[in-house]
From TrEMBL:
Classification via InterPro entries: Glyco_tran_10_C, Glyco_tran_10_N, Glyco_trans_10, GT10-like_C_sf
Domain Fucosyltransferase N-terminal, chain residue ranges per copy: 61-168
Protein name (database record): Fucosyltransferase
Keyword hit for Cytoplasm: no
Pfam families, per the entry: Glyco_tran_10_N, Glyco_transf_10
This protein's pathway: Protein modification; protein glycosylation
Enzyme Commission number, as recorded: 2.4.1.-
Organism: Clavelina lepadiformis
UniProt record similarity statement: Belongs to the glycosyltransferase 10 family.
Organism domain of life: Eukaryota
Keywords from the named record: Glycoprotein, Glycosyltransferase, Golgi apparatus, Membrane, Signal-anchor, Transferase, Transmembrane, Transmembrane helix
Protein location: Golgi apparatus, Golgi stack membrane; Membrane
Length: 392
Protein backbone atom coordinates (compact mmCIF):
# COMPACT_ATOMS: atom_id res chain seq x y z
CA UNK A 1 0.00 0.00 0.00
CA UNK A 2 1.36 3.45 -0.99
CA UNK A 3 2.09 5.67 2.05
CA UNK A 4 -0.17 8.70 2.35
CA UNK A 5 2.74 11.15 2.08
CA UNK A 6 3.96 9.53 -1.17
CA UNK A 7 0.41 9.65 -2.60
CA UNK A 8 0.10 13.36 -1.77
CA UNK A 9 3.51 14.04 -3.33
CA UNK A 10 2.61 12.26 -6.59
CA UNK A 11 -0.73 14.10 -6.74
CA UNK A 12 1.00 17.46 -6.27
CA UNK A 13 3.63 16.59 -8.89
CA UNK A 14 0.95 15.66 -11.44
CA UNK A 15 -0.86 18.94 -10.84
CA UNK A 16 2.39 20.87 -11.39
CA UNK A 17 3.07 19.05 -14.68
CA UNK A 18 -0.45 19.74 -15.97
CA UNK A 19 -0.15 23.41 -15.00
CA UNK A 20 3.19 23.75 -16.82
CA UNK A 21 1.84 22.14 -19.97
CA UNK A 22 -1.22 24.39 -19.93
CA UNK A 23 0.93 27.49 -19.37
CA UNK A 24 3.23 26.54 -22.25
CA UNK A 25 0.24 26.00 -24.55
CA UNK A 26 -1.23 29.39 -23.72
CA UNK A 27 2.05 31.26 -24.16
CA UNK A 28 2.92 30.21 -27.72
CA UNK A 29 5.24 32.77 -29.33
CA UNK A 30 3.49 35.10 -31.79
CA UNK A 31 5.75 33.96 -34.65
CA UNK A 32 4.87 30.30 -34.23
CA UNK A 33 2.34 28.42 -36.29
CA UNK A 34 -1.12 28.19 -34.74
CA UNK A 35 -2.63 24.72 -35.27
CA UNK A 36 -4.92 24.53 -38.29
CA UNK A 37 -8.63 23.93 -38.06
CA UNK A 38 -9.95 20.45 -38.92
CA UNK A 39 -10.34 19.93 -42.67
CA UNK A 40 -13.83 20.92 -43.78
CA UNK A 41 -15.64 19.23 -46.65
CA UNK A 42 -17.68 20.85 -49.42
CA UNK A 43 -21.01 19.44 -50.61
CA UNK A 44 -19.27 17.33 -53.25
CA UNK A 45 -16.97 15.79 -50.64
CA UNK A 46 -13.79 17.64 -51.64
CA UNK A 47 -11.65 19.44 -49.10
CA UNK A 48 -12.74 23.00 -48.49
CA UNK A 49 -9.97 25.59 -48.60
CA UNK A 50 -9.41 27.08 -45.20
CA UNK A 51 -7.85 30.32 -44.13
CA UNK A 52 -4.56 29.84 -42.34
CA UNK A 53 -4.79 31.45 -38.91
CA UNK A 54 -1.25 32.68 -38.45
CA UNK A 55 0.40 36.01 -39.11
CA UNK A 56 3.90 37.30 -38.61
CA UNK A 57 4.60 39.62 -35.70
CA UNK A 58 1.77 41.75 -34.37
CA UNK A 59 0.05 42.42 -37.69
CA UNK A 60 -3.70 42.00 -38.07
CA UNK A 61 -3.43 41.33 -41.84
CA UNK A 62 -0.59 39.76 -43.87
CA UNK A 63 2.14 42.04 -45.23
CA UNK A 64 3.76 41.53 -48.64
CA UNK A 65 7.23 43.05 -48.91
CA UNK A 66 8.60 43.81 -52.39
CA UNK A 67 12.38 43.73 -52.04
CA UNK A 68 12.87 46.48 -54.61
CA UNK A 69 11.25 47.93 -57.70
CA UNK A 70 11.76 45.98 -60.95
CA UNK A 71 14.98 47.03 -62.68
CA UNK A 72 15.49 49.42 -59.72
CA UNK A 73 13.34 51.94 -61.62
CA UNK A 74 11.11 54.10 -59.42
CA UNK A 75 8.24 54.14 -61.91
CA UNK A 76 8.10 50.34 -62.13
CA UNK A 77 6.09 48.07 -59.89
CA UNK A 78 3.07 48.76 -57.74
CA UNK A 79 2.69 51.90 -55.65
CA UNK A 80 3.76 51.88 -52.01
CA UNK A 81 0.94 50.59 -49.84
CA UNK A 82 -1.03 48.93 -52.65
CA UNK A 83 -3.60 46.49 -51.27
CA UNK A 84 -3.73 42.94 -52.57
CA UNK A 85 -7.09 41.70 -51.37
CA UNK A 86 -6.92 42.24 -47.61
CA UNK A 87 -3.11 42.11 -47.64
CA UNK A 88 -0.91 45.19 -47.29
CA UNK A 89 2.25 45.73 -49.33
CA UNK A 90 5.38 47.79 -48.91
CA UNK A 91 8.93 48.36 -50.17
CA UNK A 92 10.15 49.22 -46.65
CA UNK A 93 12.77 46.63 -45.73
CA UNK A 94 12.55 47.85 -42.17
CA UNK A 95 9.37 45.77 -42.02
CA UNK A 96 11.10 42.57 -43.15
CA UNK A 97 10.43 40.86 -39.83
CA UNK A 98 6.70 41.56 -40.22
CA UNK A 99 6.36 40.33 -43.82
CA UNK A 100 4.51 37.11 -44.55
CA UNK A 101 5.78 37.11 -48.16
CA UNK A 102 8.95 38.65 -49.57
CA UNK A 103 8.77 39.14 -53.34
CA UNK A 104 11.88 39.47 -55.50
CA UNK A 105 11.58 40.60 -59.10
CA UNK A 106 14.18 38.70 -61.10
CA UNK A 107 16.17 41.89 -61.69
CA UNK A 108 16.64 42.83 -58.02
CA UNK A 109 18.47 39.76 -56.73
CA UNK A 110 21.66 38.15 -57.98
CA UNK A 111 23.91 35.25 -56.98
CA UNK A 112 26.09 37.84 -55.20
CA UNK A 113 23.29 38.19 -52.64
CA UNK A 114 23.84 34.60 -51.54
CA UNK A 115 24.32 33.17 -49.03
CA UNK A 116 21.47 35.20 -47.56
CA UNK A 117 22.61 37.52 -44.77
CA UNK A 118 19.32 39.26 -43.96
CA UNK A 119 16.57 38.12 -41.63
CA UNK A 120 14.44 35.17 -42.72
CA UNK A 121 11.66 33.57 -40.72
CA UNK A 122 10.94 29.93 -41.62
CA UNK A 123 7.25 30.85 -41.81
CA UNK A 124 7.89 33.52 -44.46
CA UNK A 125 7.39 32.81 -48.14
CA UNK A 126 10.16 34.01 -50.47
CA UNK A 127 8.78 34.53 -53.98
CA UNK A 128 10.64 34.69 -57.32
CA UNK A 129 8.71 36.99 -59.66
CA UNK A 130 9.06 37.60 -63.40
CA UNK A 131 6.78 38.47 -66.28
CA UNK A 132 9.47 37.85 -68.90
CA UNK A 133 9.54 34.90 -71.26
CA UNK A 134 12.45 32.44 -71.35
CA UNK A 135 13.96 34.08 -74.45
CA UNK A 136 14.40 37.39 -72.63
CA UNK A 137 15.68 35.75 -69.45
CA UNK A 138 18.20 33.91 -71.60
CA UNK A 139 19.20 37.15 -73.30
CA UNK A 140 19.65 38.89 -69.94
CA UNK A 141 21.84 36.04 -68.69
CA UNK A 142 19.69 35.35 -65.64
CA UNK A 143 21.37 32.64 -63.54
CA UNK A 144 18.44 30.52 -62.39
CA UNK A 145 20.37 27.52 -60.96
CA UNK A 146 22.12 29.85 -58.50
CA UNK A 147 18.84 30.11 -56.59
CA UNK A 148 18.01 26.43 -56.33
CA UNK A 149 16.50 25.81 -52.93
CA UNK A 150 16.32 29.52 -52.03
CA UNK A 151 12.75 30.40 -53.01
CA UNK A 152 9.44 28.96 -51.86
CA UNK A 153 7.19 30.08 -54.71
CA UNK A 154 7.34 31.30 -58.28
CA UNK A 155 5.07 34.11 -59.47
CA UNK A 156 4.83 34.19 -63.27
CA UNK A 157 2.31 34.13 -66.14
CA UNK A 158 2.52 30.32 -66.40
CA UNK A 159 -0.44 28.17 -65.40
CA UNK A 160 1.87 25.98 -63.26
CA UNK A 161 3.32 28.87 -61.24
CA UNK A 162 2.65 28.91 -57.51
CA UNK A 163 1.12 32.36 -57.94
CA UNK A 164 -0.27 32.91 -61.44
CA UNK A 165 0.09 36.50 -62.58
CA UNK A 166 -1.31 36.59 -66.09
CA UNK A 167 -0.98 39.48 -68.49
CA UNK A 168 -4.69 39.15 -69.12
CA UNK A 169 -7.68 36.88 -68.81
CA UNK A 170 -10.93 36.32 -70.66
CA UNK A 171 -13.06 37.27 -67.67
CA UNK A 172 -11.20 40.52 -67.09
CA UNK A 173 -11.68 41.55 -70.73
CA UNK A 174 -15.38 40.67 -70.62
CA UNK A 175 -15.74 42.87 -67.56
CA UNK A 176 -13.71 45.73 -69.08
CA UNK A 177 -15.37 46.25 -72.47
CA UNK A 178 -18.85 47.46 -73.30
CA UNK A 179 -20.94 44.55 -74.58
CA UNK A 180 -24.04 44.33 -76.77
CA UNK A 181 -24.95 44.79 -80.43
CA UNK A 182 -24.82 48.59 -80.29
CA UNK A 183 -21.41 48.47 -78.62
CA UNK A 184 -20.06 46.34 -81.48
CA UNK A 185 -21.72 48.64 -84.02
CA UNK A 186 -19.86 51.57 -82.47
CA UNK A 187 -16.54 49.71 -82.37
CA UNK A 188 -16.73 48.81 -86.07
CA UNK A 189 -17.94 52.27 -87.09
CA UNK A 190 -14.82 53.78 -85.54
CA UNK A 191 -12.47 51.88 -87.88
CA UNK A 192 -10.65 54.10 -90.39
CA UNK A 193 -7.36 52.22 -90.89
CA UNK A 194 -6.43 48.62 -91.66
CA UNK A 195 -3.68 47.38 -89.34
CA UNK A 196 -1.23 48.63 -86.72
CA UNK A 197 1.83 47.28 -84.95
CA UNK A 198 3.83 48.82 -82.13
CA UNK A 199 7.31 47.36 -81.68
CA UNK A 200 10.50 48.83 -80.27
CA UNK A 201 12.93 45.89 -80.43
CA UNK A 202 13.61 44.59 -83.91
CA UNK A 203 16.18 41.84 -83.43
CA UNK A 204 17.02 41.29 -79.76
CA UNK A 205 15.85 37.66 -79.85
CA UNK A 206 15.50 35.05 -82.63
CA UNK A 207 11.74 35.44 -82.29
CA UNK A 208 11.96 39.20 -82.71
CA UNK A 209 13.85 38.70 -85.97
CA UNK A 210 11.26 36.22 -87.16
CA UNK A 211 8.31 38.51 -86.44
CA UNK A 212 10.01 41.32 -88.38
CA UNK A 213 10.47 38.91 -91.28
CA UNK A 214 6.76 38.04 -91.12
CA UNK A 215 5.74 41.70 -91.11
CA UNK A 216 7.94 42.41 -94.11
CA UNK A 217 6.43 39.45 -95.96
CA UNK A 218 2.93 40.74 -95.25
CA UNK A 219 3.84 44.15 -96.60
CA UNK A 220 5.45 42.59 -99.66
CA UNK A 221 2.21 40.65 -100.24
CA UNK A 222 0.34 43.93 -100.42
CA UNK A 223 -0.95 44.36 -96.88
CA UNK A 224 -0.66 47.95 -95.76
CA UNK A 225 -0.09 48.43 -92.04
CA UNK A 226 1.18 51.26 -89.87
CA UNK A 227 4.25 50.44 -87.81
CA UNK A 228 5.07 52.45 -84.69
CA UNK A 229 8.22 52.40 -82.58
CA UNK A 230 11.97 52.25 -83.07
CA UNK A 231 11.72 49.70 -85.88
CA UNK A 232 9.74 52.06 -88.13
CA UNK A 233 9.54 55.63 -89.32
CA UNK A 234 7.02 56.44 -86.59
CA UNK A 235 9.02 56.49 -83.35
CA UNK A 236 6.94 56.94 -80.22
CA UNK A 237 7.76 59.43 -77.49
CA UNK A 238 4.67 58.11 -75.72
CA UNK A 239 2.49 55.04 -76.03
CA UNK A 240 -0.49 55.03 -78.36
CA UNK A 241 -3.76 55.41 -76.51
CA UNK A 242 -6.53 52.85 -76.66
CA UNK A 243 -8.68 55.32 -78.60
CA UNK A 244 -5.95 55.71 -81.22
CA UNK A 245 -5.45 51.97 -81.69
CA UNK A 246 -9.23 51.47 -81.83
CA UNK A 247 -9.24 53.13 -85.26
CA UNK A 248 -7.45 50.09 -86.71
CA UNK A 249 -9.30 46.93 -87.74
CA UNK A 250 -6.38 44.66 -86.89
CA UNK A 251 -3.47 44.74 -84.47
CA UNK A 252 -0.35 42.59 -84.88
CA UNK A 253 0.08 40.83 -81.54
CA UNK A 254 3.50 39.39 -82.42
CA UNK A 255 5.50 38.10 -79.45
CA UNK A 256 9.31 37.99 -79.18
CA UNK A 257 9.49 34.18 -79.09
CA UNK A 258 7.71 31.17 -80.56
CA UNK A 259 5.59 28.71 -78.57
CA UNK A 260 6.72 29.70 -75.07
CA UNK A 261 4.14 28.13 -72.77
CA UNK A 262 1.34 30.54 -71.73
CA UNK A 263 3.33 33.60 -72.90
CA UNK A 264 0.52 35.89 -74.11
CA UNK A 265 1.32 39.49 -73.28
CA UNK A 266 -0.30 42.92 -73.27
CA UNK A 267 0.08 42.96 -77.07
CA UNK A 268 -2.90 40.63 -77.21
CA UNK A 269 -4.91 41.82 -74.22
CA UNK A 270 -4.51 45.57 -73.98
CA UNK A 271 -3.17 46.65 -77.37
CA UNK A 272 -5.71 44.59 -79.31
CA UNK A 273 -8.78 43.27 -77.46
CA UNK A 274 -9.20 46.14 -75.00
CA UNK A 275 -8.65 48.63 -77.82
CA UNK A 276 -11.34 47.02 -79.97
CA UNK A 277 -8.97 45.73 -82.67
CA UNK A 278 -8.86 42.12 -83.83
CA UNK A 279 -5.51 40.60 -82.80
CA UNK A 280 -3.47 38.86 -85.48
CA UNK A 281 -1.38 36.56 -83.30
CA UNK A 282 2.07 35.10 -83.77
CA UNK A 283 4.15 33.50 -81.03
CA UNK A 284 1.89 31.60 -78.60
CA UNK A 285 0.67 28.10 -79.28
CA UNK A 286 -2.92 28.04 -80.45
CA UNK A 287 -4.06 25.78 -77.60
CA UNK A 288 -2.68 28.30 -75.08
CA UNK A 289 -4.75 31.02 -76.72
CA UNK A 290 -7.92 28.94 -76.94
CA UNK A 291 -7.84 28.07 -73.25
CA UNK A 292 -7.73 31.67 -72.04
CA UNK A 293 -9.06 34.03 -74.76
CA UNK A 294 -12.67 34.84 -75.64
CA UNK A 295 -14.05 32.51 -78.31
CA UNK A 296 -13.53 33.62 -81.93
CA UNK A 297 -11.65 36.73 -80.90
CA UNK A 298 -8.35 36.37 -82.80
CA UNK A 299 -6.70 35.39 -86.07
CA UNK A 300 -3.89 32.86 -85.70
CA UNK A 301 -0.98 33.34 -88.08
CA UNK A 302 -0.02 29.65 -88.15
CA UNK A 303 -3.46 28.74 -89.51
CA UNK A 304 -2.25 30.12 -92.88
CA UNK A 305 0.26 28.39 -95.09
CA UNK A 306 1.99 31.63 -96.06
CA UNK A 307 2.12 35.35 -95.41
CA UNK A 308 0.45 35.81 -98.81
CA UNK A 309 -2.58 33.74 -97.74
CA UNK A 310 -2.84 35.64 -94.46
CA UNK A 311 -2.60 38.95 -96.28
CA UNK A 312 -5.37 37.90 -98.67
CA UNK A 313 -7.61 36.93 -95.77
CA UNK A 314 -7.11 40.21 -93.89
CA UNK A 315 -7.86 42.21 -97.03
CA UNK A 316 -10.95 40.06 -97.59
CA UNK A 317 -12.19 40.88 -94.09
CA UNK A 318 -11.49 44.54 -94.72
CA UNK A 319 -14.04 44.47 -97.54
CA UNK A 320 -16.56 42.18 -95.87
CA UNK A 321 -18.07 43.62 -92.69
CA UNK A 322 -20.28 40.59 -92.05
CA UNK A 323 -17.27 38.27 -91.84
CA UNK A 324 -15.19 40.81 -89.95
CA UNK A 325 -17.96 41.23 -87.39
CA UNK A 326 -17.75 37.54 -86.48
CA UNK A 327 -14.58 38.34 -84.52
CA UNK A 328 -16.72 40.41 -82.13
CA UNK A 329 -19.40 37.83 -81.42
CA UNK A 330 -17.81 37.23 -78.03
CA UNK A 331 -18.95 40.69 -76.92
CA UNK A 332 -22.24 41.06 -78.83
CA UNK A 333 -24.12 39.22 -76.08
CA UNK A 334 -24.47 41.85 -73.38
CA UNK A 335 -25.14 39.10 -70.82
CA UNK A 336 -21.99 37.15 -71.63
CA UNK A 337 -20.02 36.19 -68.53
CA UNK A 338 -16.78 34.38 -67.92
CA UNK A 339 -18.69 31.38 -66.57
CA UNK A 340 -20.81 31.13 -69.73
CA UNK A 341 -17.75 31.52 -71.96
CA UNK A 342 -15.90 28.79 -70.07
CA UNK A 343 -18.79 26.37 -70.69
CA UNK A 344 -19.03 27.33 -74.37
CA UNK A 345 -15.28 26.80 -74.77
CA UNK A 346 -15.44 23.38 -73.11
CA UNK A 347 -18.30 22.37 -75.41
CA UNK A 348 -16.42 23.37 -78.54
CA UNK A 349 -13.03 22.02 -77.46
CA UNK A 350 -13.58 18.90 -75.31
CA UNK A 351 -10.45 17.97 -73.41
CA UNK A 352 -8.97 21.47 -73.54
CA UNK A 353 -7.58 22.68 -70.21
CA UNK A 354 -9.77 25.78 -70.15
CA UNK A 355 -8.42 28.58 -67.96
CA UNK A 356 -10.46 29.67 -64.96
CA UNK A 357 -10.01 32.47 -62.41
CA UNK A 358 -7.03 31.98 -60.09
CA UNK A 359 -6.01 33.07 -56.62
CA UNK A 360 -3.87 36.15 -56.21
CA UNK A 361 -0.84 36.24 -53.93
CA UNK A 362 -2.89 37.36 -50.92
CA UNK A 363 -5.47 34.60 -51.31
CA UNK A 364 -2.67 32.12 -51.75
CA UNK A 365 -1.03 33.28 -48.53
CA UNK A 366 -4.29 33.03 -46.62
CA UNK A 367 -4.91 29.44 -47.70
CA UNK A 368 -1.32 28.17 -47.73
CA UNK A 369 -0.83 25.24 -45.35
CA UNK A 370 2.54 23.88 -46.42
CA UNK A 371 6.15 24.92 -46.62
CA UNK A 372 7.36 24.45 -50.15
CA UNK A 373 10.88 24.82 -51.57
CA UNK A 374 11.63 25.49 -55.25
CA UNK A 375 14.52 23.07 -55.63
CA UNK A 376 15.10 23.91 -59.31
CA UNK A 377 14.08 27.35 -60.50
CA UNK A 378 15.40 26.49 -63.96
CA UNK A 379 13.12 23.47 -64.17
CA UNK A 380 10.06 25.43 -63.06
CA UNK A 381 10.62 28.50 -65.21
CA UNK A 382 12.80 27.48 -68.13
CA UNK A 383 12.83 23.79 -68.96
CA UNK A 384 9.07 23.31 -69.33
CA UNK A 385 9.01 24.93 -72.77
CA UNK A 386 9.38 23.49 -76.27
CA UNK A 387 12.79 23.93 -77.88
CA UNK A 388 11.50 26.49 -80.39
CA UNK A 389 10.84 28.84 -77.48
CA UNK A 390 14.62 29.37 -77.39
CA UNK A 391 15.94 28.43 -80.81
CA UNK A 392 14.27 29.24 -84.12
Amino acid sequence: MVPKTVFLFLTLLSAIVVFCLLFFHLSVDQDELVPLKPVEKTKDGSEKKQQVDFLIGNRSVPLILFWNRPWFVESEGVSEGTKFGICDSTYDRGKLMEAKAVVFHHTVISPDDLPWQDYRNPEQVFVWWSAEGPAVLQLEGVNLPAFDGFFNWTMTYRRDADVIQRYGYRGDILNSVTKGKKAVDDVIAAKTFLAAWIVGKCDHTPGAKMRMKLANELKKAGLEFTGYGNCFDHPLDRGLTISEVSKYKFYFAFENALHCTDYITEKFWRNALLSGSVPVVWGPRKQDLLRIAPLDSFIFVEDFESAEKLSEYLMFLDKNETEYRKYFRWREDENMTDEKMIELTKQRYPGLDVAVPVEGICEKLLTNIETKVVYSLKSDVWDRNPIECFDI
